[in-house]
TrEMBL record:
Locations listed in the record: Nucleus
Listed transmembrane segments: none
UniProt enzyme class: transferase
Organism: Psophia crepitans (common trumpeter)
Protein name as annotated: [histone H3]-lysine(4) N-methyltransferase
Length: 400
């Protein structure tokens, strides 16, 4: 068709050839793309060359709409596969910028910051914990009981009882107050009303011996003799432990004999430092603790009679937690109603007992017990004396 027909159309033919040359240059510069699935039309139309080029729009960049992501982790938006193919077609001429996490603009009207909130359970469900134990080198001295008591007292975590009143009881032999050491004078034993002796002071006296039942005999006899004997160590009266060497006149208190380094033997004999053998001895006794039951043999009937006959007295008679104050009296007309087959109920009897409180746990109070007369019969009265409360008086016709 280029060679035929009219001369008036030569210019148009030449124009079509120029367009064809231009299109051929464009085809060489643009890489081959897959052809459109559309069927090619017949070659009757002269604009078929421009239709092939219009399937790829390389003059307009793809415009991505800006999407605001929610506060929580936003999804990542990627371009479609077809647009990605276009980007890869001309990497030198086409540049695409994608903002994955756009910045959120702060709202000036609100006080809260529009930053993404932190994780809800961060630092709450689990935490990392580490501990270090440092053991000092060298010898470690454990604290004593006094230091521990002082520390607990500062913390205020312990219940400390009231301090025990000082024991003013004095031994009639060694004149020392209170109970002695277990491996020494030992505990105090009651000899008579307000008369006390240490167990070992009485046991190691020359005249005293012990029965199989644990009774100490001749303690009063040893005490009378000790009032006239002077100790060789402390030069005080009351010494009753003498040296068993024949014609030796050295005599000591039991505590002074230990201090003077006298030698004691298992057969209850003692030798002074001048006559004791040198070195150790098989029968030597070095431990004086007495854990068996030992008591002073005495006439209790005579002792109780002496208490009643004294009337007003300055001494305290105590049996365990029972403190005796007054014995009372019975008149002849009261004998029928004021006694039973096991006990007497003298009017005026008074005693007090320290026992557990009815109001507080782990606390003691005083119960004052007395016997009165009402309608010719005994009336038993218990008066509860407790600090911080009014006295509570309980009465009944029987002691139970």
């Amino acid at each position: 068709m280029k060679d035929i027909v009219f001369c008036s159309n030569n210019c148009f033919v030449l124009y079509s050839a120029a367009v064809q040359a231009k299109n051929s240059e464009n085809k060489e510069s643009v890489p081959s793309l897959p052809q459109s699935p559309m069927k090619e039309r017949p070659a009757k139309a002269f604009h078929q060359y421009s239709n092939n080029i219009s399937t790829l729009d390389v003059h307009c960049l793809p415009q991505l709409q800006e999407k605001v992501s929610p506060p929580s982790s936003p999804p990542i938006m990627f371009p479609p596969a077809f647009e990605a193919a276009k980007v890869e077609a001309k990497p030198d001429e086409l540049k695409v910028t994608v903002k994955l996490k756009p910045r959120l603009k702060a709202i000036h009207s609100s006080l809260d910051d529009c930053r993404p909130p932190s994780k809800k359970w961060k630092g709450m469900k689990w935490k990392k914990w580490s501990i270090q134990i440092v053991i000092p080198k060298g010898s470690f001295k454990p604290p004593c009981e006094e230091e521990i008591d002082e520390f607990l007292k500062k913390l205020g975590t312990t219940l400390k009882p009231d301090p025990v009143p000082k024991d003013y009881r004095k031994c009639c032999f060694c004149h020392e107050e209170g109970d002695g050491l277990t491996d020494g004078p030992a505990r105090l034993l009651n000899l008579d009303l307000d008369l006390w002796v240490h167990l070992n002071c009485a046991l190691w006296s020359t005249e005293v011996y012990e029965t199989q039942a644990g009774a100490l005999i001749n303690v009063e006899l040893a005490l009378r003799r000790g009032l006239q004997m002077k100790c060789m160590f402390c030069h005080k009266m009351g010494a009753t432990s003498g040296c068993h060497r024949l014609r030796c006149t050295n005599i000591y208190h039991f505590t002074c004999a230990i201090k003077a380094q006298c030698m004691f033997f298992k057969d209850k004999t003692m030798l002074c430092p001048m006559h004791k053998p040198k070195g150790t001895h098989e029968q030597e006794l070095s431990y004086f603790a007495v854990f068996r039951r030992v008591y002073v043999q005495r006439d209790e009937v005579r002792q109780i009679a002496s208490i009643v006959q004294r009337g007003e007295r300055d001494h305290t008679f105590r049996v365990g937690s029972l403190i005796f104050h007054a014995v009372g009296q019975l008149l002849p007309q009261q004998m029928q109603a004021f006694h039973s087959s096991k006990a007497l109920f003298p009017v005026g009897y008074e005693a007090s007992r320290l026992y557990w409180s009815m109001r507080y746990a782990n606390r003691r109070c005083r119960y004052l017990c007395s016997i009165e007369e009402k309608d010719g019969l005994p009336l038993f009265v218990i008066k509860v004396v407790e600090q911080g409360h009014e006295d509570l008086v309980l009465t009944d016709t029987t002691p139970k």
